[in-house]
Input
Amino acid sequence: MITINNLSINFNGEPLFDNVSFTIGDKDRIGLTGKNGAGKSTLLKILYGLQQPDSGTIVKSKTQTIGYLPQEMIPSSTTTVLQEAMKAFDEIHSLNNQLDTINNELTSRSDYTSKEYENLLLQHEQIINKLNIIDVNNAEPQAQKILLGLGFLHSDFTRNMTEFSSGWQMRVELAKILLKKPNLILLDEPTNHLDIESITWLEGFLQQYYGAVVLVSHDRCFLDNITKRTIEITAGKIYDYKVPYSEYCVLHDERMQSQQSQMVNQQRQIAEVERFIERFRYKATKAKQVQSKIKMLDKMDRIEIDEVDSSSIHFLFPPAPHSGKIVVEVKDLSFAYDTKKVLNGINFILERGQKVAFIGRNGEGKSTLAKIIIGELKGFEGVCNLGHDVKIGYFAQNQAALLDGEKTVFETIDEIATGEARTKIRSILGSFLFDQEAIDKKVKVLSGGEKTRLALAKLLLSSVNLLVLDEPTNHLDLVSKDILKNALIKYDGAFILVSHDRDFLTSLTTTLYEFKDHTIKEYHEDIMEFLEKKKLQNLNELNLRKKEQAVAEKSVSQNKLDFQANKEREKELRKKKNRLNSIEQQISEVENEIAAMETKLNTSQDNEIFSKYQEKKELLDSLMQQWEDISIELNI
Output
């Protein structure tokens, strides 16, 4: 358990946290929520130790281990994927060294009843338990299993990390955290780097995880499927709800309504008291009552409504100009990057007004086909034709990175605005939450969410009848995602949406195209129905593999049992050796006491000394018998 006591931290002169206290239980599943800038990521950094609070304490045991995955990082490994993942087990060497040190000290000490000796035994047990949890004899199979779950192929294991994008390298960092099996896992927007299959796998892993999980996410489904507790951060305070995110939303609204009602009632009461004071302020007969009312107002705790994040983007796409019935036609299309085949014999037709989603694992060709359709990628085999009068609006997966960082927000929009739109630039930017001060900022200083909003704003400045959106929800908060979704529902043109956000896709598209094994398969169903069927399909595939896995699993299980048995035998052997040393020490002490008593008995016939002498002789006989029994067991 981790206890946070009276945590306070200021940011730009304002309290980000003000005397916040709560606990994290050993198996808690906590989702952090709050508006952008409320302090969610900061809290994770404080828990991990990357940032220190201005005041307050965080109490955790010395053996508490924490894993932390930030939103963004720059991996710099030059090893292979599997070698990098196996670095998670570097801790084993440190633990074994600690174990050797403790074993040596236990053997050399004789203060078996001291507090220090007990602490050494406790540390020894904790390290053994940690090694058992890590499962040292099964390290590489574990690493392979988790890498596969996070979307890597067997053939990827020997590829160099530098061959992969930063998003894929982040998956390896996540794998290392999961392999280390810390007591607490902290995740900051982990789904930004994962596809739907990897997200569902991670959900299953975290649901069964032995330790605690605290996460920040804008994926509503991910939050609901993992968390059992929601901590809201608002105006330096926290509200702790013992429910998942969707249930929290209902309770939050009820809390706001209750606060509003209480504040209205209090304001009415204050107004009545103030009228009484004003009416009788100068009447001597009412002076005592007036003073009493004034004191009551001074002591009254004024009810305030918690800060509400009312800021949200608001926009609708312009009406789509008319186009031909067929918007996109793809026939027998194949594409390869150098010698790596990505798409093979693809056939795809998109009609006017049709709304489709491209889904599947990362690297299966979703973004590649999107780039071919918009004309960014050439060199493919087959046919890709756009229909009559088709005008495309494109949002790239790395759209934010494509913005010119040296231009201001205003200049970014001004350079593409034409006609009447030039007079509405500030209004358009305002609808995407860029106030007068933010309009003059350079793009390079914007956050990921701000860059995404700016890129979406650019889409409004041209009238198109085909939207191609590649992961548009990355870095958008839950409210902004809902507004974008509503705008797409009302959009009367066709769109192709590449996304891994299940909640965002739900009830948004009419057709799904699954990318797998260089080809695509069409489904006329909602994303949730599709995923339910996939679960059944995966279960069937699992049943077919069970016989093949049985022998391997039996071998692994036996190895674990053997390892555990050896550890238990070593532990029992160490106890017996320590007990033998203790008995030998006691025998020496008793023999010295008996020798001293014999000297006294030679010069005295004191019955009390003789009685104690007999007791010591009996104790010596007992100790000698114990020493002999243990020696036989140890084959000494």
